[in-house]
Amino acid sequence: MAKSLMIQGTMSNAGKSLLVGGLCRVLKQDGYKVAPFKSQNMALNSFITEDGLEMGRAQVMQAEAAGIKPTVQMNPILLKPTNDVGSQVIVNGEVIGNMSAMDYYKNKPKFIPDIMKAYHQLEEEYDIIVLEGAGSPSEINLKENDIVNMGMAKLAKAPVLLVGDIDRGGVFAQLIGTLVLLEKEELSYVKGLVINKFRGDKEILMPGIRMLEERGQKKVLGVMPYVYVDIDDEDSLSERFRKKDASGLIDIAVIRFPRISNFTDFNPFECFDEVSLRYIKSPDQLGNPDIILLPGTKNTIEDLLWMRQNGLEAKILQHAKAGKIIFGICGGYQMLGQSIRDPEGVEHKGEVRGMELLPIRTVFSAEKTRTRVAGTFGNVEGILKSLSGIPIEGYEIHMGTSELEADGKSLTSLTDMTVQTEDTIDCGKADGTQKENVYGSYVHGIFDAPETAKGIVAAVLKEKGLDASNVQAFQMQEYKERQYDLLADAVRKNMDMETIYKVIEQGMQE
């Protein structure tokens, strides 16, 4: 059976996900078959596996670092917040319904068999499993029936490294305070401490490290620097949202919805020197961008009304009228249509007017579409006509369906790659819509193909009368591999891997 190691943190955003990814990469480089695991993830950034199941993107990133395909066993429970006090609950990749925070809290023990079944499946296939906790193991109000921090460590008999974030300040209090609040048995699982996101001279830290080891009776097994790598972030805490620079030759504005999801769709644009990509949430931040991107959202109708109320919708309509590119993905695509109807109250019972920029009408239903797709752009019109015929591969994950009106023109032709039937093999399905310079699609990952992002950047440069001859297609997969290797280099240099290997080998000996 597989050995294990668990990374827990003193708080959210302590850097657990990235550290797990780095360790997975190191272990892979050293010849081990390694897999990530997080029993319960709360995130709006999700992913569809090859078998059409839904999981959190953090474990997808970690699986990529480990050089393996992501499977739902790596994240058996995914919570997608629908409001401040409730979430859609996804178990083993399938939606089981919406629950209030209190209902989920009471029902957590019922999910333990699902969690352990997934974990045991990974145990049978891999040499080492690197587990990730959530938030902090010392949250007093959440410790009862815990299934993601020390509760999971006990179920998996996994030794723990406790990580603190020095970038926010107070790292010594974080680590000592967490240890003080742990029970005696829980303390026995903690085999070492890690100080994360350090900027500066490590020698200055040494008095604090000595005191930390003396007071906490745990060795510091690493001081990780603030690592500048371009790797997918957890959604609600992404530093990408802080970017406000519009100094590039091409200015792209992404609407930061209150319940924004799958914003990683736009990462390819950040890889071009010619582009400034920024996230905005008010009309005064919009400026005069060349492209406005509307991302996915967990609550399409509420976020559309949010734009309508704060004035962003009116600004976007002005830009569309001026011939600027507007491109919506998933929920953002639905918003661009004529209307959104929700007869069953999946999100917001009733019907609302869309932005009326695309000739589609959307109707919500309780059934969620989850599928991987492949195909091509059709005969694209407007500024982005150079995309015509370029291959597409990605995934769809949405509630409801959108029907083209009689004068509607499809943007792509796609084949469903998850459920292979005679119909889906032989016939492409129309997806997405275009009208003048307004475009929309359900496909997450539509910009990932090297020629797609390049084509958009080059087309906009030409539209502005600028030279586009030096724009190069960006090889996203090669770029990601380099980033994972850089992360692994930082882990090897700054973590006591010799001791960590001993911790993994010894496990939680009886």
UniProtKB/TrEMBL annotation:
The gene is cobQ. Pathway: Cofactor biosynthesis; adenosylcobalamin biosynthesis. InterPro entries: Class_I_gatase-like (IPR029062), CobQ/CobB/MinD/ParA_Nub-bd_dom (IPR002586), CobQ_GATase1 (IPR033949), CobQ_N (IPR047045), CobQ_synth (IPR004459), GATase_3 (IPR011698), P-loop_NTPase (IPR027417). Keywords: Cobalamin biosynthesis, Glutamine amidotransferase. GO terms for molecular function: ABC-type vitamin B12 transporter activity; catalytic activity. Residues 251-450 form the CobB/CobQ-like glutamine amidotransferase domain. The lineage of its organism: Bacteria, Bacillati, Bacillota, Clostridia, Lachnospirales. It comes from the Bacteria. Catalyzes amidations at positions B, D, E, and G on adenosylcobyrinic A,C-diamide. NH(2) groups are provided by glutamine, and one molecule of ATP is hydrogenolyzed for each amidation. GO terms for biological process: cobalamin biosynthetic process. The active site is at C330, H444. NCBIfam families: cobQ (TIGR00313), PRK00784.1 (NF001989). This is Cobyric acid synthase. Coiled coil: none annotated. Residues 5-226 form the CobQ/CobB/MinD/ParA nucleotide binding domain. Belongs to the CobB/CobQ family. CobQ subfamily. It holds the Pfam family CbiA. It comes from [Clostridium] polysaccharolyticum. PROSITE patterns: GATASE_COBBQ.
